[in-house]
Amino acid sequence: MYMSRVANFRPARVNNGSAPLSDDELRQFAPSIFAVEPHESRSARFAHIPTFEVLAGLRKEGFVPVKVAQGRSRVPGKADFTKHMVRFRHVSTGDTQNRYVGQVSRETVLVNAHDGTSAYHLMAGLFRLECLNGMVSQLANHGELHIPHKGNVVDRVIEGSYTVLDDSALALDAAERWSGVALSRPEQMLLADGARTVRLGDTEGKVDSPIQADAFLVPRRRTDASPDLWTTFNRIQENSIRGGLSAIGRDANNRRRTTTTREIKGIDQDVKLNRALWSLAAKMAELKGA
């Protein structure tokens, strides 16, 4: 569902999210944050509220930008206005470090664009320091807000960021519960097969790839070998996002060829895939009574 390129986008430029970002660093990775006017395709009804103004308001409230990405438009002249994503951590939350979930930070995820492709979009997220992976949670009717480009956007984004930050605590609670849910190998494979369909399937869910489900379960570090639901989800999520999964198949002429998955860098792709994987894990937790 996620493999076709999103119209007008190439892979995003992105940093790794391990430290707070200055304006110079933000500008380096996502110059569209600092667009002082909207793209010329927008009509007079489009209220341009620069992301850097929202960013300044969030900083005053203690929300620190730690990770950023920006899409690259194929349309000439649109690159400085295109979709961007900023992940924030609030100074009051710190990191959660325990034997069950590892070192995880609660985050507020902001997506916006100045070319009409996105309203201000706030989501709840978690960031796992060990693998430098950011997750976007899907918590039923929680953890997401859309704010259109009109009215007092700055105040509404700040208010919404606190709401979403509270929702990220629910995601962290879920992670702790999942860490106590043991999965059998068939149950792990069920999750991995769902992830394979999400990551490699077409719009109808058909997968035409030699890469099999068990590839999504391979741990990238010894500490990720546990069979509990939280660790299994982390293995699947990292393998899905980071790419690098390979298998040998046959092309249309029956010649051997190696297929390797690429890292997910597109903003829409990242969010959609993360939320789909979270939903799969949440469904497994529900089936297991967690």
Report on the architecture of this protein.
- This protein is an alpha+beta fold.
- The chain folds into two domains: 10-177, no CATH class; 185-287, no CATH class.
- The protein has six helices and ten strands, in the order E-H-H-E-E-E-E-E-E-E-H-H-H-E-E-H.
- The chain has helices spanning 23-29, 51-60, 153-178, 185-200, 229-242, 267-287, and strands at 10-14, 63-72, 84-90, 95-98, 102-112, 120-128, 133-136, 144-147, 246-250, 256-260.
- Strands 1, 2, 3, 4, 5, 6, 7 and 8 form an eight-stranded antiparallel beta sheet that branches. It has a two-stranded antiparallel sheet with strand order 9-10.
- A hairpin with a 7-residue loop joins strand 5 and strand 6 (120-128).
- Helix 4 runs antiparallel to helix 6 and helix 5 (229-242) packs antiparallel against helix 6 (267-287).
- The longest helix is centred in the middle third of the chain and has 26 residues, at 153-178.
- The chain is globular and about 55 Å long.
- Mean pLDDT is 83; it is low at 1-14.
How many domains make up the 3D coordinates? 2
Classification by helices and strands: alpha+beta
Order of helices and strands: EHHEEEEEEEHHHEEH
Radius of gyration: 19 Å
Question: How large is the count of helical segments?
Answer: 6
How much of the residues is beta strand, in percent?
15-25%
| Principal-axis shape | globular
In helices, the fraction of residues equals 25-40%
The total of beta strands comes to: 10
Head-to-tail CA distance between termini:
27 Å
Report the biggest beta sheet as strand number plus sense, adding barrel if it closes: 8 strands, antiparallel
Average residue pLDDT: 83
Q: Which parts are unreliable, with pLDDT below 50 for 5 consecutive residues or more?
A: 1-14
